[in-house]
Design brief:
240 residues; alpha+beta; 2 domains; six-stranded antiparallel beta sheet; three-stranded antiparallel beta sheet; 6 helices; 11 strands
């Protein structure tokens, strides 16, 4: 059986739960970005590529290169990067989540540090600020990275953290959807679907373009992460 090439990625509902936990504990969520993350992954298996443009060897033009580290564009690159990052975290005292493999935890006494990984974007929080500083320092010794600061945008979810509460929304994502599907001038209504509308299997109307319809429904499904009010109407459009 072939091993899967993909790497696990964070789910948006996990990010929401982490934001809720941070708000409950009255702590801040922070974000860091690892530069050229995929170039940090190592290969144990044999991976060969043709000679890239600009790196050809005229003397051995019929040769291929054997890779020791990952390159962007390779199917194995995300998994190799995730394995390198998770090994670094585990070697520094973190525990990997049993349900979510992109969640890592580290405890010291009564304090705790939580790290959530999505490819090269990493968000974290801790019940003590020294834990955050220690984590940032550890990551800088291993990877080239940039500290973005307090978390305000992740996986299309906008997060606003104040001293009193934490708010999540997708206003930017909504504006992008309206522009993408040509609905910027559409008239808004107070409810997700008009109560007078009756959806049936076939009312004789012209058929919609299948690809566009699926794109709209898929985009709206992602919107339900912050707009539970549209869950029923979107679901209705899926199963009609």
């Amino acid at each position: 059986m072939k091993k899967p090439l993909h790497a696990p990625v964070a789910r948006i509902k996990v990010v929401r739960m982490l934001a809720a936990f941070a708000a409950h504990m009255e702590i801040k969520l922070y974000q860091i970005d690892v530069k050229s993350a995929f170039l940090n992954g190592y290969f144990k298996e044999d991976v060969y590529v043709i000679q890239p443009l600009g790196f050809e060897n005229n003397k051995f033009s019929n040769y291929v290169f054997k890779l020791d580290k990952a390159l962007y564009g390779l199917k194995q690159a995300p998994k190799a990067w995730y394995k390198r990052l998770s090994n670094v975290l585990l070697e520094n005292g973190f525990r990997r989540g049993k349900v979510d493999n992109t969640l890592f935890l580290k405890s010291k006494g009564k304090h705790m540090l939580i790290v959530q990984v999505y490819v090269d974007d990493i968000i974290f929080d801790a019940t003590h600020i020294d834990f955050c500083d220690e984590f940032s320092k550890m990551m800088r010794t291993e990877f080239e990275m940039s500290m973005i600061g307090e978390l305000n945008f992740f996986l299309g979810l906008q997060i606003k953290q104040t001293s009193n509460d934490t708010m999540t929304h997708q206003q930017k994502y909504i504006k992008q959807l309206l522009k993408l599907f040509g609905k910027e001038l559409a008239k808004p209504i107070d409810t997700p679907i008009s109560p007078s509308n009756k959806l049936v299997m076939d009312d004789g109307s012209p058929l919609v373009e299948e690809k566009s319809y699926r794109g709209i429904i898929g985009s709206l499904l992602y919107l339900t992460a912050s707009r539970p009010s549209v869950v029923f109407s979107v679901g209705l459009c899926i199963y009609i």
